[in-house]
Amino acid sequence: MAGPDSAVEEAKQTLIQKFRAWGENPFPPTLLATLITAQCMRPLQKLPMLFPPIFLFTSYVNLLGFKTDSAGIGAAWSGLYLLISARRKQPFMKKWGARGLTRGATMGLCLVNMVGGGLAYTLGKKEDEEDED
Fold it and tell me: How many CB atoms lie within 10 A of CB 24?
């Protein structure tokens, strides 16, 4: 008979599987590159504009079949962008404008991408290891 603990275990496993599938998907890094470009293109901010090509490269590597490596690259760069973006202070009233909402969506997507990509990289198997098994 299945108790309440098995239902909790099944729910946790499902959540981990969802985050791992998110990390292995090529769409979130592309969306993140789009949001960063929309936020930092005008006025041009040079440091944040280094991130969109890296995220687009991550999507490209993912489409080539290197899902685990792509998840690791995306998680690392998402965490770095999250740190850089969190350092900038923003007045309270500007958080509710178009730029503030875009910044919040970008930071939230970075956080989810960092967690999902980290799980996919940690729990994933590399292609070389699959050939040996």
Answer: 20
Token pair of 23 as six digits: 């990390």
Q: Write the pLDDT tens digit of every residue in 76-95.
A: 999 999 999 888 877 777 77
Rounded Cα–Cα distance for residues 128 and 133 (Å):
9
Q: What is the 3-state secondary structure (H, E, C) of the chain?
A: CCCHHHHHHHHHHHHHHHHHHHHCCCHHHHHHHHHHHHHHCCCCCCCHHHHHHHHHHHHHHHHCCCHHHHHHHHHHHHHHHHHHHHHCCCCHHHHHCHHHHHHHHHHHHHHHHHHHHHHHHHHCCCHHHHHHC
Alpha carbon distances (Å) from 5 to 12, 15, 19, 106: 11, 15, 21, 36
39: which 2 tokens? 């936020």
Half-sphere exposure of 94 (CA within 13 A, CB side): 6
Q: What pTM, to 2 d.p., does this model score?
A: 0.80
Query: 72, 51, 65, 55: which is closest to 130 by C-alpha?
Result: 65
